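Following up on my earlier thread - several people asked me to post the actual chain instead of describing it. Fair enough. Here it is, all 384 residues.
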Amino acid sequence: MAVLRALAVQGGSAASLLLPALRRVLDGADSAVVPVPERDSPVLRALRVGESIDDDVALVVTTSGTTGSPKGAMLTAAALTASAVATHDRLGGPGSWLLALPPHHIAGLQVLVRSVVAGSTPVELDVSGGFDVTELPSAVARLGPGRRYASLVSAQLAKALDDSAAAAALAELDAVLIGGGPAPRPVLRAAASAGIAVVRTYGMSETAGGCVYDGVPLAGVRLRVLPDARIAIGGVTLAKGYRNPVDPDPFADPGWFHTDDVGDLDDSGVLTVAGRADDAISTGGLTVLPQLVETALCSHPAVRECAVFGLADDRLGQRVVAAVVVAAGHLPPTLDAMRAHAARTLDITAAPRELHCVTELPLRGIGKVDRSALQRRFTASAES
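Reply from S.P.:
Thanks for posting it. Predicted structure:
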């Protein structure tokens, strides 16, 4: 029986630290590792580093869920390699990668795994102190010959689009994968106008990262929508389970992982993700998915970014609340304008009843909007 080992990774040196270790675990020459930020002792204790683990596990990846307790997705070398190979097949072949994501998150780790599989060395940006778009042009210039790729979250893409040199550098790449949650439509439109080849990805630590590209599953990935509209994912990239199992177990259905996301699978097999079931707002006896409202509001020219969440309401149970980042060159939109705009494509029940203009949205993990932080902030504001 193998023993789980920890590997502390520092920003700016992750490639040199992790690549040799990844090569060994992917080849089966060494036991599983869990990449963690330096001195992250609570995670080490929670994931039982130093204790036994199944021989076929290569990586244990910390999860950024809302529970606060890391579950630790256990990924085999076969799952990681299958994901990397399928990604390269979809994008047009192996290439050189830009590492601009934290290397202890699955998206950053998969950049490294793809590099190992491709036999290339990624160019790394140190994002431990934030994403500096001024470094993008030189980083892209250092990528090797042949096909060149990057993996970002939508907040990074939006920031790069505000810098002409950074946007031009991204436009030189063969593909820019965008994960960590849905990208706002204005950001996607701006990226297309800048000539950036964006690929929208959907996946998670439990599926070895992105496994659905632009709505279409990668080779070897299976999808189905459960009776309660939740998305289930199966196939070759699936994790074995959690280091710290939970109840109910989303891996209980053999060969499948039951996500907390709801969506629709059309007759041609294209997946549309509507949002997270646990983000749903119950207002006036109806259920509203925040992501659908965000999509509607982000199509307004005055809205650059948006987050929708629920706050307790004596009459409705919860009321729909929107926090928006105002687009450059526009005046802050009014609540009436936002409600009218939402009602163009959604039932008026889903339109926000409260509006807050903010300078930025709080994030958790690698670019996911932290709705809980917004709920706490504006609940406190209402009570003060």
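DSSP finds eleven helices and 25 strands in the chain. That should answer part of your original question.
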